Amino acid sequence: MIQIRFLSFLAITLFGIHCSDPVKTYPVKGVIVDLKPGEKIVVVDHDTIPDLMMPMVMPFNLKDLKDFDGLSIGDSIHFEFIWADTVTYAKNFRVIGKGQLPETENGFFKDGEYAERKIGETIDDVTLLNLDSSLVRLSDSDGKYRFLSFIFTRCPMPTMCPAVVIKNEVLAKAFQSSDEVEFIVVSFDYLYDSPGILKDFYGPAISGYDNWTVWSSTNHIEDVYRLAKQSGCDFWGIEEGKIGHTLRSVLIGPNREVVGSWPGDVWRAGDVKNAIEVLMKL
User: Fold this and answer.
1) Where in the chain is the domain with CATH 3.40.30.10?
2) What is the pTM of this model?
């Protein structure tokens, strides 16, 4: 069933196939964490959305800049979340009052060993788990280029983690005949995404590729924090069950030096493919 859902979403996303499911509307309550008018995004720390998702901090797309009118960071809000095939957006915001903003990390992760590595700087070696629950080190694949991405399985937004996984498959297929680069998807949800869970979700999809793998961070909290932070990816709220995160994929070289970085979820697999080909020739 999981494989069927995955392939169905792949068809919708990559080939524009639309299902006949009606548009769904979900009522949402939360607190505004950030406003990004330039991107038409409002970031909300939201409560459980019944029949859809767990509490988390996440970005919501807006269709009209007028929707930002009257909104401020820290506002407690009610709004509607519209799910229409592959398009999702928020509308009809109502400010109820002022809410409590979620705690953010302090400067501990911004300096030293946890600081984001810039182009040319080296990412530390880490140990995580593969889908067979065996230890795997990042250095095991030294000598190759590696494309790293970060996800968690309970991310319900089709344009976020699921899209990142799909684009990794496109890239893995494009470089299937090359032994110079590998594609590694890392789950930062160290409490829920065990190797078994990840195998159920992604095992069928990656089984046909020797250059694509998925790693679990179960019982390896320090390692996944180090790898994610040095790669420029942020995540929080795992222990509280209210996960928030940013998205970033990085290409590291044979000695784990950062050679390319792609923030967010809007990068195109074709563009990244071309960039990887160029970067591997430098």
Assistant:
1) 107-279
2) 0.75
Q: Where in the chain is the domain with CATH 2.40.50.320?
A: 19-98
Architecture (CATH level 2) of domain 19-98: Beta Barrel (2.40)
- 36, 43 contact by CB (below 8 A): yes
Residues with Cβ within 8 Å of 202's Cβ and at least 6 positions away in sequence, in order, are: 6, 131, 165, 185, 214
pLDDT digits (tens, 9 = 90+) for 12-50: 444 333 444 578 899 999 999 999 999 898 988 889 888
Whether the predicted pLDDT of 266 surpasses 80: no
N-to-C CA span, the chain: 43
Q: Please report, for residues 197, 198, 224, the alpha-carbon distance to residue 191 in angstroms, rounded to integers and kept in the order given.
A: 11, 12, 12
Q: Are 232 and 116 in contact (CB under 8 A)?
A: yes
Cβ atoms of 163 and 10 closer than 8 Å: no
Q: Look up residue 253 and give its amino acid.
A: G
How far from chain centre, in Å, is Cα 256? 21
What is the rounded CA–CA span in Å between residue 85 and residue 19? 7
Q: Give the CATH fold of the 107-279 domain.
A: Glutaredoxin (3.40.30)
